[in-house]
Inverse folding.
């Protein structure tokens, strides 16, 4: 969490570039803008070229707009670069007039017509420059936002086409970070850096031309200072990066300790661990302090250095310019112009030098997004998909073989025939892979060998949508979303009327408690849906399944953490729900198991036994062992470990 | 924000130093333009001649100048000059001076012989009055000043005539001169004098261009020194502000952490753990950044701005209105833009959260969504969130891209205006070109500093949110404190726990969670608490180690109210095993030894064995040295729970509290553990919270809770007879036949 908040390294948001980011009209001798970007420690993409090619493909639809943006950016830059020179000319003219007057040259006067003309030309140029600049920024942000939007949309659409397998190995955070961080990086680069490349390069060339047109000697002097500037800056950057990394590491330690101690606060207190904890905190905190101020100091050196170098050239230009004016090779106003050119030179140079970094980290972000978009998708649907109207609910497994990865097969040659309306209990100890069968039934995974049929049709011959439409699911991990209770129930059948929603809630024994809630069916569930109890959530998911009215059911019995009274309601609702439907139950409750028509006993991912309660007891195998140890402990639960379904 | 100021106290002197340094830096930064102006005005325009006081002048010209002076002026000037001539100089000196003034060979020379600044300044006013007069008479004759009545025949030196005039007539001429001079601006007079002096130096054969270059290099050197000084100040400020910011961060972090460590659960509930973590980590880092920004920008910009204004005021006020107008325009623009943009800025975070939420839901609900075939629906939800975010972002971006060109236009407009107005001022003689150039730079500095200040004003409220959040925590006093007067435990009771008519209500709640609870748990006995979710079982046991204080009634441990002993002493008696096992990073051993570092290796092994942890510890390569990651994520829930039990055992407490801690164990371990525990905890008081009937079957005493009230106390058999609630719970879990067992 802390990392996510700290994210966004370059130019946080639209404010980042700073209002005075570029442009030839300089600042006062304060110099230096925001040099933060120069500090960035970029990440590198695996293949820059390939990523950039793909990226350019995304920009293709906007190529006309992009050309306009670039042309306008160049025009805007060129117009504003002309400014200082023209102002300089006006100043020179002014100076000449003044000197002539001082010398008592007859008829000497300041040439106000000339100055006035220049002023009008300049005003025009400035207006044009500002106008072009705004138009290019306006268009560019439009492009950037559209591209960003497309990226996000593609990712969200991609998620739905990806096999479940992908998400076994990836955390939600990783996928989430594509949608937010990676896309944000790309967006920032597009809005801020793309036209900046153009303007920076134009500025550098333009300013160089203007400087040379004034005096090659001064240009040489001004440029001679640059290597000094770069040398100093890169020295500082190198030094400070070391401390910066240290600081981040130590900050991580401190934050880790804080999280750990706050998270375990009760335990820490119960065991009188305050002193110990504070001692350790002090040690970590001191370490952090040492690295923090050094890193802060060094990175803060950038600005003074830049300012210093800027002022050096200011001084150099002033002296040398003065000398040249006396010799008559340049005008007084040229000094003024030159000072401004020198000032506007360093910023774009730094930006250009940094562009490589920015592009690299952008490419790295883009690469992650592209890789995600290129991931394997679910096997495509059959062209001649079977459509079935009246499903009876006959499910057959024929010599099914399956493994989550090709090396380790977990289900070896499993066959079973489940008749319509039968109850199938899936039992087994923790980690036995009880949800595997569910995943196979719903085709989240495809079997490696054999087949599964519904009413005699191989489930691979249905469309996924068609297949899943026959099933209803009530999982222990109740998935509810941030929305009203009504919306959450309606999720089972998006077209259902309000009356049907209420009817389903009634069938699920949920109506009563819903009506006691504030706003009743319109009560908003919060993000963690923590404003209703676990048991109530269960009831809602059952209502959802009622509304979906499927032929085949998949149920996941709750293990614990539901209070006894709600538990009774849930059991009753589940029983009602199962009536007349073929049901697969991941079972924990003895009564459920006993009354099941078929019990599938699972161990280490495989189905080791099947039959009904009596048969299995008689067989005296793994099931019998489980059942007996159950009695010995006088406990009702075969598998008391909650959270098992996650396997 | 103000609340943090007291934490800056240890750094007062450093902050004062920063202020002084920033002041020095601003002074040197502000001096640069005026030096540049000198290069233009004096260096270029005046050939390096700074004022009207001649450094050297021919004796003949000197006499002419003194003609018009009053006696007082004459006395002042004469004292500061020495006469150089061939006869009076020694041979060595003569050769030396001849090099500088080649004309010494033909004429005697008056040489300036003082460096005193005020002296020179006084003489400057004198000379700049008379040099133009002498120059005027030399060029146009005396009639200019004395009127037509005063005729000098051609070919006669007018100065010789003047020298002969009676004092009264000289006075009359002097007053006409003064009157005439008053109509000419000072800077014009200066220009006349400079031109005269430049010509005089040439006549003396002095190296005029040498004077000019020397002057320019001298000024250049000053500028360099100033630049260096400015950089030095800036670096030192950077050093100091880094130390202060990091130091403040360290102190605050430390104080906050210590404060939170002393919080009771009430405060944790009030702030939430996540929020406390953010406050101790991110918020402090934010404050650190804020400090640096404060020192470098928020302090510096006003100093620079005010300094710039002072400079401008000191030099020329006539164009101040341009700066005022520009600053006004800029501020108006900023205010307008930010009133448009800030509400949108605020909504951005919400929209990002919304998009994240939808994405997270899509990811966590992957199976459900596919099972219900609602991908399309989810996609529409995502798209809606995506469109909202994109639209708002676009709006903000477009407002922001307006800012840059607009600012540039403003700046450039200001420059233009300065040139236009300035050139008229120059034409009128009230200003020099170099002054105008310097004015441009000052204008930029002032506008920039106002810009900075306004940005700071916009940023500050947002940044200070962190400060407010931190000080909220620092100002919160833990509700549970150690008593001033302590009581002694009654040692003979060996861990007896008594509840006497205890009621408890969570702060801010409408209803009591526990109502009038009374029972006694004795040493050597197991007291079990059972009841449905929300019946108050966990809350009840949390009152014993004083995680919360009772609202009413008393909790006694060893005969003493828990509020009358120190928390430390009280908790020393208690071995607590929470519902969700919490381990700390370190090793398995460091976790078992957490409360008892002196435990021997044998003891550690024994506790591990009792807690049924031995099997997985011995299987691991590193045994007891197996690393435990933060939050114990590298161990399973059951393993963590067993270690947390071993940890409680290692404490050898008088009272054990198991807060529903056995339900994470599988049945086998559960049974084995309870058997082993019985041996270990033989003489201790055991309090056990559970939802499982099977766990309580053999307890010495079962307390049945229903809606915060005691529904019954007794053994299993007794309660099956007498307590309806108990029977209901029991029957929901076990069948009749099983319960008989």
């Amino acid at each position: 969490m802390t990392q996510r908040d700290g994210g966004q390294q370059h130019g946080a948001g639209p404010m980042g570039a700073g209002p005075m980011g570029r442009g030839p009209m300089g600042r006062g001798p304060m110099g230096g803008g925001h040099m933060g970007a120069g500090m960035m420690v970029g990440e590198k993409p695996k293949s820059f070229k390939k990523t950039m090619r793909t990226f350019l493909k995304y920009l293709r639809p906007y190529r006309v707009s992009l050309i306009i943006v670039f042309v306008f950016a160049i025009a805007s830059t060129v117009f504003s670069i002309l400014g200082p020179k023209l102002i300089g000319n006006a100043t020179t003219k002014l100076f000449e007039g003044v000197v002539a007057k001082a010398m008592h040259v007859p008829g000497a006067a300041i040439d106000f017509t000339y100055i006035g003309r220049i002023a009008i030309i300049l005003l025009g140029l400035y207006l044009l420059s500002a106008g072009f600049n705004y138009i290019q920024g306006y268009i560019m942000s439009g492009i950037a936002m559209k591209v960003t939007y497309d990226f996000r949309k593609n990712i969200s659409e991609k998620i739905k086409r990806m096999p479940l397998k992908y998400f076994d190995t990836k955390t939600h955070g990783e996928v989430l970070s594509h949608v937010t961080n990676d896309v944000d990086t790309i967006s920032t680069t597009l809005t801020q850096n793309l036209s900046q490349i153009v303007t920076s390069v134009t500025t550098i060339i333009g300013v160089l031309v203007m400087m040379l047109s004034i005096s090659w000697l001064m240009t040489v002097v001004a440029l001679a200072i640059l290597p000094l500037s770069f040398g100093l800056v890169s020295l500082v950057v190198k030094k400070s990066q070391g401390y910066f990394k240290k600081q981040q590491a130590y900050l991580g330690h401190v934050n880790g300790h804080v999280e750990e101690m706050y998270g375990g606060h009760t335990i820490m207190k119960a065991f009188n661990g305050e002193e110990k904890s504070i001692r350790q905190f002090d040690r970590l905190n001191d370490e952090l302090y040492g690295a923090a101020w050094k890193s802060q100091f060094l990175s803060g050196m950038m600005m003074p250095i830049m300012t210093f170098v800027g002022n050096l050239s200011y001084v150099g230009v002033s002296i040398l310019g003065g000398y040249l004016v006396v010799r008559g090779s340049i005008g007084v106003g040229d000094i003024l112009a030159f000072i401004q050119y020198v000032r506007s030179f360093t910023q774009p140079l730094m930006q250009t030098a940094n562009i490589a970094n920015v592009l690299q980290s952008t490419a790295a972000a883009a690469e992650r997004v592209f890789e995600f978009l290129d991931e394997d998708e679910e096997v495509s649907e059959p062209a001649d998909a079977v459509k079935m109207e009246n499903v009876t609910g006959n499910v057959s497994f024929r010599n099914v073989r399956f493994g989550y990865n090709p090396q380790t097969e977990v289900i070896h040659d499993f066959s079973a025939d489940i008749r319509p309306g039968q109850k199938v209990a899936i039992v087994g100890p923790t980690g036995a892979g009880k949800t595997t069968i569910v995943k196979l039934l719903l085709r989240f995974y495809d079997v490696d060998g054999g087949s599964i049929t519904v009413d005699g049709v191989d489930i691979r011959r249905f469309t996924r949508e068609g297949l899943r439409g026959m099933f209803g699911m009530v999982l222990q991990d109740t998935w509810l979303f941030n929305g009203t209770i009504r919306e959450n129930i309606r999720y089972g059948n998006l077209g259902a009327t309000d009356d049907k929603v209420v009817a389903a809630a009634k069938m699920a024994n949920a109506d009563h408690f819903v009506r006691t809630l504030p706003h009743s069916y319109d009560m908003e569930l919060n993000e963690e849906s923590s404003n209703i109890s676990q048991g109530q959530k269960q009831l809602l998911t059952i209502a959802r399944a009622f509304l979906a009215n499927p032929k085949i059911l998949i149920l996941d019995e709750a293990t614990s953490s539901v209070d006894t009274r709600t538990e009774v309601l849930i059991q009753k609702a589940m029983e009602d729900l199962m009536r007349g439907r073929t049901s697969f139950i991941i079972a924990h409750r003895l009564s459920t198991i006993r009354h099941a028509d078929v019990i599938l006993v699972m161990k280490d991912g495989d189905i080791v036994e099947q039959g009904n309660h009596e048969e299995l007891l008689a067989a005296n195998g793994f099931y019998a062992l489980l059942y007996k140890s159950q009695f010995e402990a006088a406990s009702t639960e075969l598998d008391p470990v909650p959270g098992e379904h996650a396997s | 924000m103000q609340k943090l100021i007291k934490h800056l106290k240890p750094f007062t002197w450093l902050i004062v130093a920063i202020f002084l340094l920033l002041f020095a830096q601003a002074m040197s930064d502000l001096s640069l333009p005026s030096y540049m102006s000198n290069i233009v005005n004096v260096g270029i325009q005046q050939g390096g001649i700074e004022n009207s006081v001649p450094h050297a002048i021919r004796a003949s010209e000197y006499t002419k100048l003194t003609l018009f002076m009053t006696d007082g002026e004459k006395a002042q000037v004469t004292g500061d000059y020495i006469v150089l001539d061939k006869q009076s100089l020694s041979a060595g000196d003569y050769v030396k001076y001849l090099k500088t003034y080649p004309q010494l060979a033909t004429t005697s020379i008056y040489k300036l012989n003082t460096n005193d600044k005020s002296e020179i300044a006084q003489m400057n006013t004198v000379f700049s009055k008379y040099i133009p007069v002498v120059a005027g008479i030399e060029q146009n004759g005396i009639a200019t000043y004395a009127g037509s009545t005063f005729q000098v025949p051609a070919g006669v030196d007018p100065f010789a005539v003047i020298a002969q005039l009676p004092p009264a007539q000289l006075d009359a001429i002097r007053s006409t001169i003064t009157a005439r001079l008053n109509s000419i601006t000072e800077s014009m007079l200066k220009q006349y004098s400079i031109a005269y002096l430049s010509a005089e130096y040439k006549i003396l054969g002095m190296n005029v261009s040498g004077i000019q270059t020397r002057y320019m290099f001298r000024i250049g050197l000053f500028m360099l020194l100033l630049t260096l000084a400015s950089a030095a100040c800036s670096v030192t400020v950077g050093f100091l502000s880094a130390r202060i910011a990091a130091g403040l961060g360290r102190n605050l972090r430390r104080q906050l952490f210590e404060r939170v460590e002393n919080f009771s659960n009430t405060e944790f509930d009030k702030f939430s753990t996540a929020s406390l973590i953010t406050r101790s980590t991110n918020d402090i880092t934010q404050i650190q950044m804020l400090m640096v920004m404060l020192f470098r920008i928020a302090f510096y910009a006003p100093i620079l701005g005010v300094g710039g204004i002072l400079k401008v005021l000191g030099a020329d006020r006539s164009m101040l209105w341009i700066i005022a107008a520009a600053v006004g325009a800029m501020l108006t623009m900023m205010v307008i833009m930010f009133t448009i943009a800030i509400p949108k800025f605020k909504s951005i975070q919400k929209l990002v959260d919304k998009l994240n939420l939808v994405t997270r839901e899509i990811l966590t609900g992957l199976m459900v969504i596919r099972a219900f075939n609602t991908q399309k629906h989810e996609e529409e939800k995502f798209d809606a969130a995506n469109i909202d975010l994109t639209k708002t972002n676009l709006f903000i971006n477009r407002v922001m891209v307006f800012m840059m060109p607009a600012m540039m236009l403003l700046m450039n407009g200001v420059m233009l205006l300065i040139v236009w107005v300035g050139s008229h001022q120059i034409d009128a003689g009230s200003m020099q070109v170099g002054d105008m150039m310097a004015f441009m730079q000052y204008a930029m500095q002032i506008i920039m500093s106002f810009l900075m200040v306004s940005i700071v004003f916009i940023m500050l409220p947002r940044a200070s949110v962190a400060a407010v959040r931190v000080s909220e925590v620092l100002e919160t006093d833990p509700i549970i404190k150690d008593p001033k007067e302590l009581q002694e435990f009654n040692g003979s009771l060996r861990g007896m726990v008594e509840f006497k008519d205890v009621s408890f209500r969570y702060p801010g709640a409408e209803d009591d969670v526990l109502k009038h609870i009374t029972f006694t748990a004795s040493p050597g006995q197991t007291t079990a608490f059972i009841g449905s979710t929300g019946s108050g079982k966990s809350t009840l046991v949390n009152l014993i180690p004083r995680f919360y204080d009772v609202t009413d009634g008393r909790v006694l441990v060893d005969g003493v109210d828990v509020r009358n002993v120190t928390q430390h002493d009280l908790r020393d008696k208690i071995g607590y095993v929470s519902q969700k096992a919490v381990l700390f990073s370190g090793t398995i051993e460091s976790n078992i030894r957490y409360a008892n570092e002196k435990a021997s290796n044998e003891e550690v092994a024994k506790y591990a064995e009792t807690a049924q942890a031995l099997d997985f510890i011995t299987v691991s390569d590193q045994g007891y040295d197996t690393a435990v990651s933060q939050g114990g994520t590298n161990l399973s829930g059951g393993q963590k729970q067993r270690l947390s039990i071993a940890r409680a055992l290692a404490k050898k407490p008088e009272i054990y509290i198991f807060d529903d801690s056995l339900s994470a164990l599988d049945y086998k371990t559960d049974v084995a553990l309870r058997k082993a525990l019985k041996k270990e905890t033989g003489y201790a008081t055991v309090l056990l919270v559970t939802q499982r009937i099977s766990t309580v079957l053999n307890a010495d005493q079962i307390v049945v809770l229903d809606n915060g009230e005691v529904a019954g106390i007794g053994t299993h058999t007794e309660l099956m007879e007498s307590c309806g609630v108990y029977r209901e719970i029991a029957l929901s879990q076990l069948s009749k036949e099983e319960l008989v067992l």
The mean pLDDT of chain B is 84. The longest strand of chain B covers residues 497-504. Chain B touches chain A through 180 residues (CB under 8 Å).
